[in-house]
User: Which sequence fits this backbone?
């Protein structure tokens, strides 16, 4: 009887520990996204994070951590950046990241979009299940640049 009680206490503590670890991971992801540097892209009038974060998370978790004014980049933005002078600063020759789904039909069916690129090719996948997560798949955030263009000369912040 006593060992049964002890076993239940152990299971309860293990569950509490698991919940605390999950909470810590969520807070770490939020902090990681806040620490990511922003690069001003005058041609697109946006700022974009230079590093991918939220790896191993599903799209909805990434969306939930957006701050006011931030968004997940569009495929068009990422593809343009891949073919621009900013490609290397953003590591767009080796990336796997969520982008906004440009396909309304797949979006309405609950699918999310991922962009994969390496040195040889790029691929847009609009048929990713919304519950898909992978330790290599992450996201970067973007935001419209609302300031005076002269006050920002392609500085990383």
Assistant:
């Amino acid at each position: 009887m006593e060992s049964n009680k002890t076993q239940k206490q152990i299971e309860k503590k293990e569950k509490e520990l698991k919940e605390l670890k999950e909470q810590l991971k969520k807070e770490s992801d939020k902090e990681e996204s806040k620490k990511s540097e922003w690069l001003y892209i005058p041609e697109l009038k946006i700022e974009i994070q230079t590093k991918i974060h939220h790896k191993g998370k599903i799209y909805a978790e990434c969306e939930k951590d957006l701050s006011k004014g931030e968004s997940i980049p569009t495929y068009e933005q990422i593809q343009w950046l891949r073919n621009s002078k900013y490609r290397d600063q953003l590591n767009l020759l080796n990336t796997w990241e969520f982008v906004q789904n440009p396909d309304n039909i797949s979006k309405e069916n609950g699918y999310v979009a991922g962009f994969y690129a390496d040195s040889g090719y790029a691929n847009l996948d609009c048929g990713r299940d919304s519950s898909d997560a992978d330790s290599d798949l992450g996201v970067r955030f973007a935001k419209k640049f609302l300031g005076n263009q002269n006050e920002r000369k392609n500085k990383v912040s």
In short: The CA atoms of residues 56 and 93 lie 20 Å apart. The domain at 37-151 is CATH 3.10.100 (Mannose-Binding Protein A; Chain A). The two ends are 61 Å apart (CA to CA). The longest helix spans residues 2-35.
